[in-house]
Amino acid sequence: MILAIDGMGGDHAPKSVIDGAMLALNELPNLKIKLYGHKEKLNPFLTEHERLEVIHCEEVIEGEDDPARSIRRKKDASMTKMLEAVTDGSADACLSAGNTGALMAGGLFKVGRIEGVSRPALATTLPTIDGQGFLMLDLGANADAKPENIVQYAIMGNIYAKQVRGIEKPRVGLLNIGTEDKKGNELTKSVFGLLKEADLHFIGNVEARDLLNNVADVVVTDGFTGNMVLKSIEGTAGAMMAMLKEAFMSSGKTKIGALLMKNELKKLKTKLDYSEHGGAALFGLQAPVIKAHGSSNARAIYSAIRQAAIMAEHNVTEVIKTKIADSNKQQGD
Fold this sequence. Notes:
Elements: E1 2-6, H1 15-27, E2 32-37, H2 39-42, E3 52-56, H3 67-73, H4 78-87, E4 93-96, H5 100-111, E5 121-126, E6 134-137, H6 147-163, E7 171-175, H7 186-197, E8 201-206, E9 218-220, H8 223-248, H9 252-260, H10 262-272, E10 280-283, E11 289-291, H11 298-313, H12 316-332
């Protein structure tokens, strides 16, 4: 299995990317990595490995670059070359912690959509109190969505939950403003009816306040709503950890308590960090394309690499192709 990685993408690149890649090579014996980036910047952090190939690239797509334009114009950028490796079949999947918009644009322009998928979706596994996590999509690939788009998100999310997360019968929920069947706007009401008829374990509407209580294994919504929920969870988790730190540092007595609870606080921080589950996957493309968080450390990069490897190993893309084709055929009938 060959994974193409953008070595220059992310806030802590290339060190965190290389450290994560080396960790993955040591942990995953069947993995080979093609690392794309400027060799002079990569070399200080590189260690030779028989399953690591470094490909020199002169350019880098920066965070402030225009997404579509940078993919078209920066032909020798690490992200561009990484995507081309998937397109030409020299890699099975790819990963970047760089410019999200450029990666999504490149995924569409270079990797291409699966036939029958109207709009790809951005999905990631978010934390729950019990540590199981849940998959949510769309998280911002498309601000607007039609009912049939969200049904496809549910089908793709269901496949991922089965193939990658190992859930035999994933519970699929529709994010809404209430759990009653008739709740919501015209979009959610239409989606609700379609999901009830789909070949899924659809559990109905779910509310945002219940997401972290493991109310569902897969939660679907439009990209505008999904992105706001993602940012809210991320911001709340960060604020809660900051408040805990402030409380524990407020006096000598609380500092002693913090010292005694050091391990438990680390576990709590890890549980709230969704990057522990991997990156965000672009569902609906011809090959796995993974977006790692821009601030990813080596462990988060490793988690995203492992996620990409599992997707490739379990042929998630091919299963999605089959299921989408079957679903479209049924709708046509």
